[in-house]
Amino acid sequence: MPGIRYEVFPMRLIALLSVSALFLGALLPSARGALPPEVKKELTELNRELRPVTVMLRKKQVDEAKAVIQKVEDRIKELKLADDERDRTWTALKTALLRAKRAIPVSFEQEVAPIIKDKCLRCHGEDQPRANLRMDTYANMGRGGRSGPLLLPRNPRRSLIMARLTADAEDRMPQGEAQLSDDEIGIIGRWIGGGAAFDGEDVTAPIGQSTMEKKPDKPPVKVVMADGTESVSFKDDVAPWMVNVCMRCHSGANPRSGYNITTLEQLLSGGDTGSTIVPGDPDGSYIVDLVLRQDPIKMPAGNQVQIKRSQAQALETWIKEGAHFDGVDGKATLRSLVPTEEELASAKLAAMSVIEFSDRRIEQAESTWKRVAPREDAKSVTSENLHVYGNLPESRLEEFSRWGEEQVASMTSRYKLPGGAKPWRGRLIVYATKDRFDYEEFNTVLLSRRTPRGVSGHSVVSPNFDNVYVALFDVGDADSADALNAKQLLNSLLAQAYLMRDGGTVPDWLRHGFGLLECGAVAESQYLQLAPQKAGASLATISNPATIFDDGTFSPEEVGPVGFLLTRYLINNGGIGKLQQLVGELRTNRNAGRAVQATYGQNAAVIGQAFLRTGGR
Questions:
Q1: pLDDT tens, position by position, 181-226
Q2: Is residue 85 domain-shared with residue 46, that is, in the same domain?
Q3: Are 566 and 588 contained in the same domain?
Q4: Domain count of the chain?
Protein backbone atom coordinates (compact mmCIF):
# COMPACT_ATOMS: atom_id res chain seq x y z
CA MET A 1 0.00 0.00 0.00
CA PRO A 2 1.26 3.59 -0.65
CA GLY A 3 2.70 5.61 2.23
CA ILE A 4 1.43 8.74 3.89
CA ARG A 5 3.43 11.96 3.77
CA TYR A 6 2.59 13.57 7.09
CA GLU A 7 2.79 12.65 10.75
CA VAL A 8 -0.02 12.19 13.22
CA PHE A 9 0.54 11.17 16.83
CA PRO A 10 -2.90 10.65 18.50
CA MET A 11 -2.34 10.18 22.20
CA ARG A 12 -4.91 7.38 22.51
CA LEU A 13 -3.16 5.45 19.72
CA ILE A 14 0.22 5.82 21.42
CA ALA A 15 -1.31 4.45 24.62
CA LEU A 16 -2.86 1.51 22.77
CA LEU A 17 0.40 0.58 21.03
CA SER A 18 2.66 0.89 24.09
CA VAL A 19 3.37 -2.32 25.95
CA SER A 20 5.61 -0.97 28.66
CA ALA A 21 3.17 1.77 29.70
CA LEU A 22 0.47 -0.77 30.39
CA PHE A 23 2.60 -2.40 33.08
CA LEU A 24 4.53 0.50 34.55
CA GLY A 25 2.26 0.68 37.58
CA ALA A 26 2.17 -3.10 37.87
CA LEU A 27 5.96 -3.29 38.25
CA LEU A 28 6.00 -1.17 41.40
CA PRO A 29 6.61 -2.95 44.72
CA SER A 30 3.57 -4.73 46.10
CA ALA A 31 1.75 -3.49 49.17
CA ARG A 32 -0.18 -6.72 49.62
CA GLY A 33 0.92 -10.10 50.90
CA ALA A 34 3.26 -12.22 48.76
CA LEU A 35 1.87 -15.00 46.60
CA PRO A 36 2.38 -18.56 47.89
CA PRO A 37 5.69 -20.07 46.74
CA GLU A 38 3.99 -22.83 44.76
CA VAL A 39 1.95 -20.25 42.80
CA LYS A 40 5.02 -18.15 42.06
CA LYS A 41 6.83 -21.26 40.88
CA GLU A 42 3.98 -22.13 38.51
CA LEU A 43 3.89 -18.58 37.16
CA THR A 44 7.60 -18.82 36.43
CA GLU A 45 7.03 -22.11 34.59
CA LEU A 46 4.22 -20.55 32.55
CA ASN A 47 6.56 -17.72 31.61
CA ARG A 48 9.09 -20.29 30.38
CA GLU A 49 6.39 -21.99 28.31
CA LEU A 50 5.86 -18.73 26.41
CA ARG A 51 9.49 -18.43 25.34
CA PRO A 52 9.24 -20.76 22.30
CA VAL A 53 6.43 -18.63 20.83
CA THR A 54 8.90 -16.27 19.13
CA VAL A 55 10.70 -19.19 17.46
CA MET A 56 7.39 -20.74 16.41
CA LEU A 57 6.31 -17.52 14.73
CA ARG A 58 9.62 -17.26 12.86
CA LYS A 59 8.93 -20.75 11.53
CA LYS A 60 5.38 -19.69 10.55
CA GLN A 61 3.94 -22.08 13.16
CA VAL A 62 1.16 -19.67 14.06
CA ASP A 63 -1.39 -22.27 15.18
CA GLU A 64 1.15 -23.90 17.49
CA ALA A 65 2.01 -20.51 19.00
CA LYS A 66 -1.67 -19.74 19.55
CA ALA A 67 -2.11 -23.08 21.31
CA VAL A 68 0.71 -22.29 23.75
CA ILE A 69 -0.77 -18.88 24.51
CA GLN A 70 -4.25 -20.35 25.01
CA LYS A 71 -2.89 -22.98 27.38
CA VAL A 72 -1.20 -20.29 29.50
CA GLU A 73 -4.31 -18.09 29.51
CA ASP A 74 -6.52 -21.01 30.58
CA ARG A 75 -4.24 -21.81 33.49
CA ILE A 76 -4.13 -18.17 34.57
CA LYS A 77 -7.94 -18.11 34.71
CA GLU A 78 -7.92 -21.23 36.88
CA LEU A 79 -5.49 -19.57 39.30
CA LYS A 80 -7.93 -16.65 39.74
CA LEU A 81 -5.24 -14.06 40.41
CA ALA A 82 -6.33 -10.48 40.93
CA ASP A 83 -5.53 -8.39 37.86
CA ASP A 84 -4.01 -5.67 40.06
CA GLU A 85 -1.79 -8.12 41.95
CA ARG A 86 1.71 -6.58 41.93
CA ASP A 87 3.88 -9.61 42.60
CA ARG A 88 6.87 -9.37 40.24
CA THR A 89 6.49 -12.95 39.03
CA TRP A 90 2.88 -12.27 38.09
CA THR A 91 3.53 -8.92 36.38
CA ALA A 92 6.45 -10.43 34.45
CA LEU A 93 4.15 -13.18 33.16
CA LYS A 94 1.47 -10.67 32.17
CA THR A 95 4.05 -8.65 30.24
CA ALA A 96 5.39 -11.75 28.49
CA LEU A 97 1.86 -12.92 27.67
CA LEU A 98 0.87 -9.57 26.19
CA ARG A 99 4.02 -9.48 24.07
CA ALA A 100 3.39 -13.01 22.84
CA LYS A 101 -0.21 -12.21 21.91
CA ARG A 102 0.81 -9.05 20.10
CA ALA A 103 3.45 -10.98 18.17
CA ILE A 104 0.75 -13.18 16.63
CA PRO A 105 0.13 -11.88 13.09
CA VAL A 106 -3.24 -10.18 12.71
CA SER A 107 -5.37 -11.75 9.98
CA PHE A 108 -6.87 -9.19 7.63
CA GLU A 109 -9.66 -11.50 6.50
CA GLN A 110 -10.62 -12.88 9.90
CA GLU A 111 -9.96 -9.91 12.23
CA VAL A 112 -9.64 -6.61 10.34
CA ALA A 113 -12.16 -7.11 7.53
CA PRO A 114 -15.13 -7.80 9.89
CA ILE A 115 -14.48 -4.51 11.70
CA ILE A 116 -14.25 -2.53 8.46
CA LYS A 117 -17.32 -4.24 7.05
CA ASP A 118 -19.37 -3.50 10.16
CA LYS A 119 -18.13 0.02 10.97
CA CYS A 120 -16.81 1.65 7.77
CA LEU A 121 -18.79 0.57 4.70
CA ARG A 122 -21.87 2.65 5.54
CA CYS A 123 -19.91 5.73 4.48
CA HIS A 124 -17.06 4.22 2.45
CA GLY A 125 -18.77 1.55 0.39
CA GLU A 126 -19.16 1.35 -3.36
CA ASP A 127 -22.10 3.77 -3.51
CA GLN A 128 -21.14 7.46 -3.14
CA PRO A 129 -18.15 6.96 -0.81
CA ARG A 130 -17.36 9.84 1.54
CA ALA A 131 -14.16 11.75 0.70
CA ASN A 132 -13.80 9.50 -2.38
CA LEU A 133 -12.48 6.76 -0.09
CA ARG A 134 -13.70 3.25 -0.85
CA MET A 135 -13.02 0.48 1.64
CA ASP A 136 -15.15 -2.23 0.07
CA THR A 137 -12.08 -4.17 -1.15
CA TYR A 138 -8.49 -4.45 0.01
CA ALA A 139 -7.37 -2.99 -3.34
CA ASN A 140 -9.58 0.09 -2.92
CA MET A 141 -8.26 0.64 0.60
CA GLY A 142 -4.78 0.83 -0.90
CA ARG A 143 -5.83 3.59 -3.31
CA GLY A 144 -6.77 5.97 -0.49
CA GLY A 145 -9.11 8.93 -0.94
CA ARG A 146 -9.31 12.69 -1.13
CA SER A 147 -7.15 13.09 2.00
CA GLY A 148 -4.39 10.86 0.67
CA PRO A 149 -3.19 7.30 1.43
CA LEU A 150 -5.16 5.49 4.09
CA LEU A 151 -2.24 3.89 5.88
CA LEU A 152 1.53 3.44 5.99
CA PRO A 153 2.48 -0.22 6.47
CA ARG A 154 4.54 -0.86 9.63
CA ASN A 155 3.84 2.67 10.89
CA PRO A 156 0.39 2.93 12.48
CA ARG A 157 1.25 6.21 14.22
CA ARG A 158 1.61 7.97 10.86
CA SER A 159 -1.38 6.24 9.26
CA LEU A 160 -4.42 8.38 8.46
CA ILE A 161 -6.91 5.66 9.40
CA MET A 162 -5.52 5.47 12.95
CA ALA A 163 -5.61 9.25 13.30
CA ARG A 164 -9.26 9.27 12.26
CA LEU A 165 -10.22 6.39 14.55
CA THR A 166 -8.66 8.06 17.61
CA ALA A 167 -9.49 11.72 16.90
CA ASP A 168 -11.80 13.92 18.98
CA ALA A 169 -15.54 13.37 18.53
CA GLU A 170 -15.95 16.07 15.86
CA ASP A 171 -13.39 14.53 13.48
CA ARG A 172 -13.55 10.91 14.59
CA MET A 173 -14.65 8.04 12.37
CA PRO A 174 -17.08 6.40 12.04
CA GLN A 175 -18.85 9.75 11.96
CA GLY A 176 -22.02 9.95 14.01
CA GLU A 177 -21.51 6.45 15.43
CA ALA A 178 -19.99 5.04 18.60
CA GLN A 179 -16.21 5.04 18.72
CA LEU A 180 -14.49 1.75 17.98
CA SER A 181 -13.45 -0.15 21.09
CA ASP A 182 -9.83 -0.20 22.24
CA ASP A 183 -9.62 -3.85 21.14
CA GLU A 184 -10.84 -3.02 17.63
CA ILE A 185 -8.48 -0.07 17.27
CA GLY A 186 -5.67 -2.21 18.63
CA ILE A 187 -6.34 -4.96 16.05
CA ILE A 188 -6.15 -2.48 13.17
CA GLY A 189 -3.05 -0.83 14.64
CA ARG A 190 -1.24 -4.16 15.09
CA TRP A 191 -2.22 -5.22 11.58
CA ILE A 192 -0.68 -2.05 10.16
CA GLY A 193 2.34 -2.42 12.45
CA GLY A 194 2.86 -5.94 11.14
CA GLY A 195 2.93 -4.75 7.55
CA ALA A 196 -0.80 -4.52 6.66
CA ALA A 197 -0.56 -7.89 4.91
CA PHE A 198 -3.40 -9.43 2.91
CA ASP A 199 -4.11 -13.09 3.68
CA GLY A 200 -6.87 -13.65 1.15
CA GLU A 201 -6.75 -14.79 -2.46
CA ASP A 202 -8.21 -11.84 -4.39
CA VAL A 203 -7.52 -8.22 -3.43
CA THR A 204 -10.51 -7.10 -5.52
CA ALA A 205 -12.99 -9.39 -3.75
CA PRO A 206 -15.63 -7.80 -1.49
CA ILE A 207 -14.19 -7.09 1.92
CA GLY A 208 -13.91 -10.21 4.08
CA GLN A 209 -14.90 -12.65 1.31
CA SER A 210 -11.49 -13.82 0.09
CA THR A 211 -10.36 -16.27 2.76
CA MET A 212 -7.43 -18.48 1.89
CA GLU A 213 -9.07 -21.54 3.36
CA LYS A 214 -12.77 -22.18 3.23
CA LYS A 215 -14.04 -24.19 6.14
CA PRO A 216 -16.11 -27.19 5.14
CA ASP A 217 -19.84 -26.69 5.34
CA LYS A 218 -21.39 -28.10 8.47
CA PRO A 219 -23.97 -30.83 7.98
CA PRO A 220 -27.57 -29.59 7.94
CA VAL A 221 -29.45 -29.69 11.22
CA LYS A 222 -33.05 -30.63 11.74
CA VAL A 223 -35.19 -28.14 13.62
CA VAL A 224 -37.97 -29.97 15.49
CA MET A 225 -40.97 -27.76 16.21
CA ALA A 226 -42.55 -27.74 19.66
CA ASP A 227 -45.79 -29.68 20.09
CA GLY A 228 -47.01 -28.16 23.36
CA THR A 229 -45.85 -30.96 25.67
CA GLU A 230 -42.63 -29.19 26.63
CA SER A 231 -42.13 -27.78 30.11
CA VAL A 232 -39.51 -25.26 28.90
CA SER A 233 -40.00 -22.70 26.15
CA PHE A 234 -36.92 -21.94 24.06
CA LYS A 235 -38.38 -18.56 23.05
CA ASP A 236 -39.22 -17.46 26.60
CA ASP A 237 -36.79 -19.37 28.87
CA VAL A 238 -33.59 -19.88 26.87
CA ALA A 239 -33.28 -17.37 24.01
CA PRO A 240 -33.49 -14.17 26.15
CA TRP A 241 -30.39 -14.86 28.26
CA MET A 242 -28.50 -16.37 25.33
CA VAL A 243 -29.02 -13.16 23.35
CA ASN A 244 -28.02 -10.90 26.22
CA VAL A 245 -25.14 -12.96 27.64
CA CYS A 246 -23.72 -15.34 25.02
CA MET A 247 -24.09 -13.49 21.73
CA ARG A 248 -21.43 -10.97 22.69
CA CYS A 249 -18.78 -13.61 21.92
CA HIS A 250 -20.66 -16.06 19.71
CA SER A 251 -21.87 -13.98 16.77
CA GLY A 252 -20.47 -11.98 13.88
CA ALA A 253 -17.86 -12.88 11.29
CA ASN A 254 -15.37 -14.35 13.77
CA PRO A 255 -17.29 -15.99 16.65
CA ARG A 256 -15.31 -17.44 19.52
CA SER A 257 -14.42 -21.12 19.01
CA GLY A 258 -16.20 -20.96 15.65
CA TYR A 259 -19.54 -21.22 17.47
CA ASN A 260 -22.13 -18.80 16.12
CA ILE A 261 -25.53 -18.72 17.83
CA THR A 262 -27.15 -16.00 15.74
CA THR A 263 -29.92 -18.40 14.65
CA LEU A 264 -31.31 -21.62 16.13
CA GLU A 265 -29.88 -23.61 13.21
CA GLN A 266 -26.41 -22.24 13.96
CA LEU A 267 -26.90 -22.89 17.67
CA LEU A 268 -27.68 -26.55 16.94
CA SER A 269 -24.91 -26.98 14.36
CA GLY A 270 -22.11 -26.47 16.90
CA GLY A 271 -18.64 -24.95 16.62
CA ASP A 272 -15.04 -25.99 16.11
CA THR A 273 -15.31 -28.61 18.86
CA GLY A 274 -18.23 -30.38 17.16
CA SER A 275 -21.83 -30.77 18.28
CA THR A 276 -22.31 -28.48 21.26
CA ILE A 277 -25.96 -29.47 21.65
CA VAL A 278 -27.21 -33.06 21.29
CA PRO A 279 -31.04 -33.00 21.37
CA GLY A 280 -32.37 -35.43 23.97
CA ASP A 281 -28.93 -35.90 25.58
CA PRO A 282 -27.88 -33.12 28.00
CA ASP A 283 -25.02 -35.31 29.32
CA GLY A 284 -23.58 -35.43 25.81
CA SER A 285 -24.10 -31.73 25.19
CA TYR A 286 -20.89 -29.79 25.76
CA ILE A 287 -22.78 -26.53 26.38
CA VAL A 288 -24.48 -27.98 29.49
CA ASP A 289 -21.09 -28.96 30.89
CA LEU A 290 -19.79 -25.41 30.31
CA VAL A 291 -22.66 -23.50 31.91
CA LEU A 292 -23.82 -25.88 34.64
CA ARG A 293 -21.47 -28.67 35.68
CA GLN A 294 -17.87 -27.56 35.61
CA ASP A 295 -16.29 -26.14 38.73
CA PRO A 296 -15.62 -23.33 38.24
CA ILE A 297 -18.21 -22.63 35.55
CA LYS A 298 -16.39 -21.86 32.26
CA MET A 299 -19.07 -19.94 30.40
CA PRO A 300 -19.57 -17.11 29.85
CA ALA A 301 -15.83 -16.59 29.46
CA GLY A 302 -14.48 -14.31 32.16
CA ASN A 303 -17.87 -14.43 33.93
CA GLN A 304 -18.55 -10.80 33.08
CA VAL A 305 -22.25 -11.59 33.39
CA GLN A 306 -23.08 -14.71 35.37
CA ILE A 307 -25.73 -17.09 34.05
CA LYS A 308 -28.22 -17.88 36.79
CA ARG A 309 -28.43 -21.51 37.84
CA SER A 310 -32.14 -21.54 36.98
CA GLN A 311 -31.27 -20.43 33.43
CA ALA A 312 -28.65 -23.16 33.02
CA GLN A 313 -31.13 -25.74 34.32
CA ALA A 314 -33.76 -24.50 31.86
CA LEU A 315 -31.24 -25.07 29.06
CA GLU A 316 -30.56 -28.59 30.35
CA THR A 317 -34.29 -29.40 30.46
CA TRP A 318 -34.85 -27.93 26.99
CA ILE A 319 -32.14 -30.16 25.54
CA LYS A 320 -33.43 -33.20 27.48
CA GLU A 321 -36.91 -32.65 26.00
CA GLY A 322 -35.45 -32.69 22.50
CA ALA A 323 -34.39 -29.07 21.93
CA HIS A 324 -37.74 -28.26 20.33
CA PHE A 325 -38.39 -24.84 18.79
CA ASP A 326 -41.48 -22.82 19.65
CA GLY A 327 -40.70 -19.99 17.24
CA VAL A 328 -41.72 -19.68 13.58
CA ASP A 329 -38.52 -20.00 11.54
CA GLY A 330 -35.32 -21.74 12.61
CA LYS A 331 -33.36 -19.50 10.26
CA ALA A 332 -34.57 -16.35 11.98
CA THR A 333 -32.20 -14.64 14.40
CA LEU A 334 -32.54 -15.30 18.11
CA ARG A 335 -32.60 -11.53 18.55
CA SER A 336 -35.89 -11.44 16.62
CA LEU A 337 -37.39 -13.79 19.23
CA VAL A 338 -36.45 -11.55 22.14
CA PRO A 339 -38.22 -8.20 22.47
CA THR A 340 -35.91 -5.30 23.27
CA GLU A 341 -36.75 -2.89 26.10
CA GLU A 342 -37.83 -0.40 23.46
CA GLU A 343 -40.12 -2.98 21.84
CA LEU A 344 -41.65 -3.86 25.20
CA ALA A 345 -42.23 -0.16 25.90
CA SER A 346 -43.76 0.30 22.44
CA ALA A 347 -46.11 -2.63 22.99
CA LYS A 348 -47.22 -1.14 26.29
CA LEU A 349 -47.88 2.23 24.66
CA ALA A 350 -49.70 0.62 21.73
CA ALA A 351 -52.09 -1.10 24.14
CA MET A 352 -53.16 2.20 25.75
CA SER A 353 -56.60 3.59 25.03
CA VAL A 354 -57.11 7.13 23.72
CA ILE A 355 -58.09 8.33 27.20
CA GLU A 356 -55.07 6.66 28.80
CA PHE A 357 -52.77 8.23 26.25
CA SER A 358 -54.33 11.67 26.77
CA ASP A 359 -53.90 11.37 30.53
CA ARG A 360 -50.31 10.28 29.98
CA ARG A 361 -49.55 13.39 27.92
CA ILE A 362 -50.91 15.70 30.64
CA GLU A 363 -48.86 13.94 33.33
CA GLN A 364 -45.85 13.92 31.03
CA ALA A 365 -46.04 17.68 30.45
CA GLU A 366 -46.06 18.39 34.17
CA SER A 367 -43.25 15.98 35.10
CA THR A 368 -41.03 17.14 32.20
CA TRP A 369 -41.52 20.80 33.12
CA LYS A 370 -40.46 20.06 36.70
CA ARG A 371 -37.24 18.52 35.40
CA VAL A 372 -36.47 21.43 33.09
CA ALA A 373 -37.68 24.46 35.06
CA PRO A 374 -38.45 23.36 38.64
CA ARG A 375 -38.59 26.95 39.96
CA GLU A 376 -40.95 28.25 37.29
CA ASP A 377 -44.70 27.88 37.80
CA ALA A 378 -46.58 26.79 34.70
CA LYS A 379 -50.12 26.79 33.38
CA SER A 380 -51.76 24.73 30.66
CA VAL A 381 -54.39 25.01 27.95
CA THR A 382 -55.80 21.82 26.44
CA SER A 383 -57.52 21.66 23.06
CA GLU A 384 -58.54 18.91 20.65
CA ASN A 385 -55.05 18.16 19.31
CA LEU A 386 -52.69 20.10 21.61
CA HIS A 387 -51.73 20.43 25.25
CA VAL A 388 -50.00 23.83 25.59
CA TYR A 389 -47.89 24.09 28.75
CA GLY A 390 -45.59 26.87 29.92
CA ASN A 391 -44.84 29.90 32.05
CA LEU A 392 -46.46 32.46 29.72
CA PRO A 393 -49.60 34.35 30.78
CA GLU A 394 -52.69 32.19 30.32
CA SER A 395 -54.02 34.52 27.63
CA ARG A 396 -50.83 34.01 25.62
CA LEU A 397 -51.01 30.23 26.05
CA GLU A 398 -54.59 30.36 24.75
CA GLU A 399 -53.36 32.35 21.75
CA PHE A 400 -50.69 29.72 21.06
CA SER A 401 -53.36 27.02 21.36
CA ARG A 402 -55.63 28.81 18.87
CA TRP A 403 -52.80 29.33 16.38
CA GLY A 404 -51.79 25.71 16.78
CA GLU A 405 -55.26 24.31 16.12
CA GLU A 406 -55.56 26.53 13.02
CA GLN A 407 -52.27 25.09 11.73
CA VAL A 408 -53.35 21.50 12.45
CA ALA A 409 -56.62 22.08 10.58
CA SER A 410 -54.68 23.53 7.65
CA MET A 411 -52.27 20.59 7.55
CA THR A 412 -54.94 17.89 7.80
CA SER A 413 -57.03 19.54 5.06
CA ARG A 414 -54.12 19.52 2.59
CA TYR A 415 -52.28 16.38 3.71
CA LYS A 416 -55.07 13.93 4.42
CA LEU A 417 -54.84 11.33 7.16
CA PRO A 418 -56.45 7.89 6.65
CA GLY A 419 -59.88 7.38 8.15
CA GLY A 420 -60.04 10.71 9.94
CA ALA A 421 -57.19 9.72 12.27
CA LYS A 422 -55.72 12.24 14.69
CA PRO A 423 -52.23 13.57 13.87
CA TRP A 424 -50.76 12.46 17.22
CA ARG A 425 -52.02 9.94 19.75
CA GLY A 426 -53.05 11.58 22.99
CA ARG A 427 -52.35 15.10 21.67
CA LEU A 428 -49.05 16.84 21.03
CA ILE A 429 -47.46 18.82 23.88
CA VAL A 430 -46.40 22.40 23.16
CA TYR A 431 -43.90 23.67 25.72
CA ALA A 432 -43.86 27.49 25.52
CA THR A 433 -41.41 29.50 27.65
CA LYS A 434 -41.26 33.23 28.25
CA ASP A 435 -37.50 33.56 27.70
CA ARG A 436 -34.64 31.88 25.88
CA PHE A 437 -32.93 30.56 29.03
CA ASP A 438 -35.85 28.30 29.96
CA TYR A 439 -36.06 27.04 26.37
CA GLU A 440 -32.33 26.25 26.33
CA GLU A 441 -32.86 24.06 29.39
CA PHE A 442 -35.01 21.73 27.27
CA ASN A 443 -31.97 21.07 25.09
CA THR A 444 -29.55 20.84 28.00
CA VAL A 445 -31.61 18.66 30.35
CA LEU A 446 -33.57 16.47 27.94
CA LEU A 447 -31.28 16.19 24.91
CA SER A 448 -27.83 16.88 26.43
CA ARG A 449 -26.92 19.35 23.71
CA ARG A 450 -26.21 23.04 23.43
CA THR A 451 -28.67 25.41 21.79
CA PRO A 452 -27.12 27.00 18.68
CA ARG A 453 -27.56 30.70 18.11
CA GLY A 454 -30.56 31.42 15.94
CA VAL A 455 -32.42 28.27 17.06
CA SER A 456 -35.56 29.17 19.00
CA GLY A 457 -37.51 25.91 18.98
CA HIS A 458 -37.44 22.23 18.07
CA SER A 459 -39.77 19.27 17.58
CA VAL A 460 -39.49 15.69 18.88
CA VAL A 461 -41.50 12.64 17.80
CA SER A 462 -39.91 9.45 19.14
CA PRO A 463 -40.36 6.18 17.19
CA ASN A 464 -42.53 4.59 19.91
CA PHE A 465 -44.51 7.85 20.49
CA ASP A 466 -43.28 8.00 24.07
CA ASN A 467 -42.31 11.64 23.48
CA VAL A 468 -44.31 13.83 21.10
CA TYR A 469 -43.78 17.54 21.63
CA VAL A 470 -42.52 20.87 20.35
CA ALA A 471 -40.64 23.33 22.53
CA LEU A 472 -40.09 27.03 21.84
CA PHE A 473 -39.80 30.37 23.56
CA ASP A 474 -41.98 33.37 22.86
CA VAL A 475 -39.99 35.42 20.32
CA GLY A 476 -42.73 38.01 19.96
CA ASP A 477 -45.01 38.99 17.10
CA ALA A 478 -42.78 41.38 15.15
CA ASP A 479 -41.51 40.33 11.73
CA SER A 480 -37.74 40.16 11.38
CA ALA A 481 -35.12 39.46 8.74
CA ASP A 482 -33.26 37.26 11.23
CA ALA A 483 -36.02 35.04 12.62
CA LEU A 484 -39.63 33.95 12.33
CA ASN A 485 -42.20 35.55 14.63
CA ALA A 486 -43.93 33.51 17.33
CA LYS A 487 -46.86 32.33 15.21
CA GLN A 488 -44.63 31.40 12.26
CA LEU A 489 -42.22 29.57 14.55
CA LEU A 490 -45.04 27.57 16.13
CA ASN A 491 -46.49 26.75 12.69
CA SER A 492 -43.08 25.61 11.48
CA LEU A 493 -42.54 23.29 14.45
CA LEU A 494 -46.05 21.83 14.18
CA ALA A 495 -45.46 21.14 10.48
CA GLN A 496 -42.24 19.32 11.38
CA ALA A 497 -44.07 17.22 13.97
CA TYR A 498 -46.83 16.51 11.44
CA LEU A 499 -44.23 15.29 8.93
CA MET A 500 -42.82 12.91 11.57
CA ARG A 501 -46.19 11.93 13.04
CA ASP A 502 -45.64 8.19 12.33
CA GLY A 503 -42.41 8.15 14.35
CA GLY A 504 -40.22 7.87 11.25
CA THR A 505 -36.99 9.78 10.78
CA VAL A 506 -36.25 12.26 8.01
CA PRO A 507 -33.08 14.30 7.34
CA ASP A 508 -32.82 17.62 9.14
CA TRP A 509 -32.88 19.60 5.88
CA LEU A 510 -36.26 18.09 4.92
CA ARG A 511 -37.76 18.53 8.38
CA HIS A 512 -36.70 22.18 8.66
CA GLY A 513 -37.39 22.92 5.00
CA PHE A 514 -40.94 21.57 5.17
CA GLY A 515 -41.52 23.50 8.39
CA LEU A 516 -40.47 26.79 6.80
CA LEU A 517 -42.63 26.15 3.73
CA GLU A 518 -45.61 25.59 6.04
CA CYS A 519 -44.87 28.34 8.57
CA GLY A 520 -47.51 30.72 7.17
CA ALA A 521 -45.05 33.47 6.27
CA VAL A 522 -45.91 35.29 3.04
CA ALA A 523 -43.54 35.07 0.07
CA GLU A 524 -42.52 38.68 0.68
CA SER A 525 -41.40 37.84 4.22
CA GLN A 526 -37.95 39.32 4.91
CA TYR A 527 -36.79 36.07 6.48
CA LEU A 528 -37.76 33.92 3.48
CA GLN A 529 -36.54 36.50 0.99
CA LEU A 530 -33.08 36.34 2.56
CA ALA A 531 -32.97 32.50 2.60
CA PRO A 532 -30.89 32.26 -0.65
CA GLN A 533 -28.38 34.72 0.76
CA LYS A 534 -28.15 32.89 4.09
CA ALA A 535 -27.75 29.52 2.36
CA GLY A 536 -25.36 30.74 -0.33
CA ALA A 537 -22.17 30.61 1.72
CA SER A 538 -22.93 27.06 2.86
CA LEU A 539 -23.78 25.80 -0.61
CA ALA A 540 -20.63 27.35 -2.08
CA THR A 541 -18.49 24.94 -0.03
CA ILE A 542 -20.16 21.79 -1.43
CA SER A 543 -17.73 19.74 -3.50
CA ASN A 544 -19.89 16.61 -3.87
CA PRO A 545 -23.52 17.55 -4.73
CA ALA A 546 -24.80 14.18 -3.49
CA THR A 547 -23.89 15.10 0.10
CA ILE A 548 -26.52 17.86 0.11
CA PHE A 549 -29.10 15.23 1.05
CA ASP A 550 -27.07 13.75 3.95
CA ASP A 551 -27.60 14.60 7.60
CA GLY A 552 -24.68 16.48 9.09
CA THR A 553 -23.67 18.31 5.92
CA PHE A 554 -25.01 21.62 7.28
CA SER A 555 -24.83 23.12 10.76
CA PRO A 556 -28.01 23.79 12.81
CA GLU A 557 -27.80 27.48 11.83
CA GLU A 558 -27.50 26.64 8.12
CA VAL A 559 -29.90 23.73 7.77
CA GLY A 560 -33.09 25.87 7.88
CA PRO A 561 -32.38 28.18 4.91
CA VAL A 562 -30.77 25.36 2.89
CA GLY A 563 -33.63 22.98 3.67
CA PHE A 564 -36.19 25.61 2.69
CA LEU A 565 -34.58 26.09 -0.75
CA LEU A 566 -34.02 22.37 -1.32
CA THR A 567 -37.53 21.30 -0.28
CA ARG A 568 -39.06 24.05 -2.40
CA TYR A 569 -36.90 22.97 -5.36
CA LEU A 570 -38.08 19.35 -5.06
CA ILE A 571 -41.73 20.42 -4.92
CA ASN A 572 -41.34 22.81 -7.88
CA ASN A 573 -39.70 20.09 -9.97
CA GLY A 574 -41.63 17.02 -8.86
CA GLY A 575 -44.76 18.10 -7.06
CA ILE A 576 -45.92 17.51 -3.49
CA GLY A 577 -46.79 13.89 -4.35
CA LYS A 578 -43.15 13.09 -5.06
CA LEU A 579 -42.11 14.75 -1.81
CA GLN A 580 -44.58 12.56 0.09
CA GLN A 581 -43.16 9.54 -1.74
CA LEU A 582 -39.66 10.59 -0.64
CA VAL A 583 -40.82 10.74 2.98
CA GLY A 584 -42.14 7.19 2.59
CA GLU A 585 -38.82 5.99 1.14
CA LEU A 586 -36.92 7.55 4.03
CA ARG A 587 -38.96 5.53 6.53
CA THR A 588 -37.30 2.34 5.29
CA ASN A 589 -34.04 3.62 3.78
CA ARG A 590 -31.57 5.44 6.05
CA ASN A 591 -29.44 6.43 3.06
CA ALA A 592 -30.97 9.73 1.91
CA GLY A 593 -29.16 9.62 -1.44
CA ARG A 594 -30.64 6.24 -2.31
CA ALA A 595 -34.10 7.35 -1.19
CA VAL A 596 -33.83 10.41 -3.46
CA GLN A 597 -32.77 8.22 -6.40
CA ALA A 598 -35.60 5.73 -5.78
CA THR A 599 -38.14 8.58 -5.71
CA TYR A 600 -36.98 10.78 -8.56
CA GLY A 601 -35.28 8.20 -10.79
CA GLN A 602 -32.00 10.13 -10.93
CA ASN A 603 -28.72 9.92 -9.08
CA ALA A 604 -28.63 12.15 -6.00
CA ALA A 605 -25.50 13.86 -7.32
CA VAL A 606 -27.29 14.80 -10.57
CA ILE A 607 -30.25 16.30 -8.71
CA GLY A 608 -27.93 18.04 -6.27
CA GLN A 609 -25.91 19.54 -9.11
CA ALA A 610 -29.08 20.82 -10.81
CA PHE A 611 -30.19 22.37 -7.52
CA LEU A 612 -26.86 24.16 -7.10
CA ARG A 613 -26.85 25.33 -10.72
CA THR A 614 -30.32 26.87 -10.53
CA GLY A 615 -29.85 28.37 -7.07
CA GLY A 616 -32.77 26.35 -5.66
CA ARG A 617 -35.47 27.69 -7.98
A1: 888 888 898 888 888 888 888 888 888 675 544 455 666 788 889 8
A2: yes
A3: yes
A4: 5
> Is 364 in the same domain as 478?
yes
Which residues neighbour 421 within 8 Å (Cβ) at sequence distance 6 or greater? none
On the CB side of 354, CA atoms within 13 Å amount to 7
DSSP state letter for 325: B
β-sheet bridge partners, residue 457: 472
**In a shared domain, residues 482 and 357:** yes
In SS3 terms, 129-195 reads as: CHHHCCCCCHHHHHHCECCECCCCCCCHHHCHHHHHHCCCCCCCCCCCCCCCCHHHHHHHHHHHHCC
- Asked whether residue 78 is assigned to any structural domain, the reply reads yes
527 touches 483 (CB < 8 A): yes
Report pLDDT digits (tens) over 496-548: 999 988 777 788 999 999 999 999 887 777 888 888 888 877 888 888 888 88
Which string of b and e fits 546-578 if b means at least 16 CB within 10 Å? bbbbbbebbebebbbbbbbbbbbbbbeebeeee
Domain hosting residue 99, numbered range: 11-103
Same domain, 350 and 437: yes
* Domain co-membership, 479 together with 366: yes
DSSP string computed for 285-309? -HHHIIIIISSS---SGGGSSPPPH
Return the biggest CA–CA distance within the chain. 89
